[in-house]
Amino acid sequence: MSDFLVQIKNATVYLKDTPVLKSIDWTIRPGEHWALVGNNGSGKTTLLKLIFGELLPIDGGTVHWFNNREWNGLAEIRERVGYVSAEYQENYDRNVTGLEVVESGFFASIGLWQKVSPQQKQRAEACMDLLEIEHLGKKLFRSMSYGEARRVLLARALVHRPALLVLDEPCAGLDIPTRERFLETLQKLARKTQLIYVTHHIEEILPVITHVLYLKNGKAFRQGEKDAMLQNKILSEALGHPLSLHKNNGRFWLRGS
To answer: How many domains does one find in the chain?
Structure first.
């Protein structure tokens, strides 16, 4: 059996008696970087909760992580799966310093409530250096620009050296120059960790992305290698609107963009 980071089989999820995901099959293998694409309400957030172990499927559906068929608890998932989102940024309501935000990633906490070891502090500083945001170490989180705060949260997600980095609409709220700098950083990070990039903005799908999964009405509408999936007909059917793509410098853009 081939190796996998995450393997989801026949996953159906109900929320308040409503089926939100229906018979999802999805395997993320070593070396693959995925874009998860779908309209609002297609089930993307619920699917991410399966990946984080926050929800479990019913009726015989399964989720397994890192070649392991046994459940080892949420702690292992938290250490090996990093997470960044615009929503999480809004919910990070503790006005601590940038370095303290990054250090809080060791404890999966909002704010810093535990003592940080010298090794953890060194690792947090190294993650900030990697993203060239060491100057934000002493700046209060709530006084940062939107883009600065997003990069600090990205550093936070990296402290455990995650095998998988999940980015849920990570460019939401960023202006175009800030978005492009953020995407350039992600392109480089893909050398160190695998990505799941969640979006409905096709132009944000990076050259490093290898595969695309379309979610539509809670179902895996289509999935496969990126160039095969980013075709006009498939995209138009997945998003429910006639769309036309063109490719430029390794990225796909809607015609007219």
So the answer is: 1
Q: Which amino acid is at 138?
A: K
Q: Where are the beta strands (DSSP E) in 91-241?
A: 164-168, 194-199, 211-216, 219-225
CA 26 to chain CA centroid, nearest Å = 15
Q: Using a pLDDT cut of 70, give the percent of the chain over it.
A: 99
- 8 Å CB contact between 200 and 168: no
- Kindly tell me if the per-residue pLDDT of 97 is higher than 80: yes
Strands 164-168 vs 81-85: parallel, antiparallel or unpaired: parallel
Cα 41 from Cα 162, distance rounded (Å)? 28
137 assigned to some structural domain:
no
Largest Cα span, the chain:
55
Helix spans in 71-145 (H) = 74-80, 86-91, 98-104, 118-130
pLDDT digits (tens, 9 = 90+) for 164-213: 999 999 998 899 999 999 999 999 999 999 999 999 899 999 999 999 99
98 vs 96: CA distance, rounded Å? 7
Whose CA is closest to 87, among 196, 167, 184, 194? Answer: 167
Task: Give me the DSSP letters along 63-77.
Answer: EEETTB-S---HHHH
Residue range of the domain that includes 56: 1-66+163-175+194-257
Paired sense of beta strands 194-199 and 6-15, if any: unpaired
Give a yes or no: residue 247 inside a domain.
Answer: yes
User: What are the backbone dihedrals phi and psi of residue 60, each rounded to the nearest 5 degrees, phi first?
Assistant: 90, 0
Three-class SS state of 167: strand
| 44 vs 226: CA distance, rounded Å | 18
Q: Does a structural domain hold residue 16?
A: yes
